[in-house]
Design a protein that fits this description.
The chain is an alpha+beta fold. It has a domain of 122 residues: D-amino Acid Aminotransferase, Chain A, domain 1 (2-Layer Sandwich). Strands 8, 9, 10, 11, 12, 13 and 14 form a seven-stranded antiparallel β-sheet that branches. Strands 1-2-3-7-6 form a five-stranded antiparallel β-sheet, covered by helices on one side. Helix 1 runs parallel beside helix 6. Strand 10 and strand 11 form a beta hairpin. It contains six helices and 14 strands. Bound molecules: thymidine-5'-phosphate. The site of thymidine-5'-phosphate (TMP) has 12 residues, from helix 2, strand 12 and strand 14.
Amino acid sequence: MARRKKIYEGKAKILYEGPEPGTLVQYFKDDTTAFNAEKKDVIEGKGVLNNRLSEFFMKGLNEIGVPTHFIKRINMREQLVRSVEIIPLEVVVRNVAAGSISKRLGIAEGTPLPRPIVEFYYKDDALGDPLVTEEHIIAFGWATQQDMDDMVALALRVNDFISGIMMGVGIKLVDFKIEIGRIWDGDFMRLVVADEISPDSCRLWDMETGQKLDKDVFRRDLGNLADAYTEVAKRLGVLPNNATPMGKPTLIN
Ligand code: TMP
């Protein structure tokens, strides 16, 4: 059998050529990195969990009319997605101060923000993904003014949707990162949510105990990452309550 064509390999995922033009297969690895890959590990089962969780969020967004690249999950580790032209920005929305905003501005972690704050980081590993302003983004042609308005609107809708779902299961959405891509329909272009939405790219705190249920568990050595993600998946009903962290007995497609 011919080996399928690898289009791109990132730190946590691989993109393969899809079955139809304009599609890709997105494969979720168990590789886990932090601090621009200075810290690395392989966490068994993480890719399976993120595939399921990202499916859950992206499908929900599609259903409420927030466009995403997601088409369908294919198997335990793979999903079919639309091929997009990724805008080279990480779009971060914060509801509560944590991580880099706490460090940069000296705001204690856990301080609620007066309103959701949207930030943009230029995707460039060699530069360590620096924070950039709208001026930089437009001047350097990474996005237009219209794109900026659309990206902020998309990011805030994602924030409302995921915050609401998480609140329903006793989890606070502290912040998250999304990536946005362009899809061309002839001469028409629209922006869609791309990449993944998973505990790798969110901060999720238990509303009662404050327990961290996201990649900070790995970044800060707070315990077992797969257990934390399994807890999120169980609460959302993505995994049955009797699933093991690996989810082996229940995760057959
Ligand atoms: P930060 O506080 O480190 O800027 O992170 C903000 C949010 O973005 C947090 O939920 C983690 C997520 N994030 C990524 O998904 N990828 C990254 O490379 C970084 C730095 C943060």
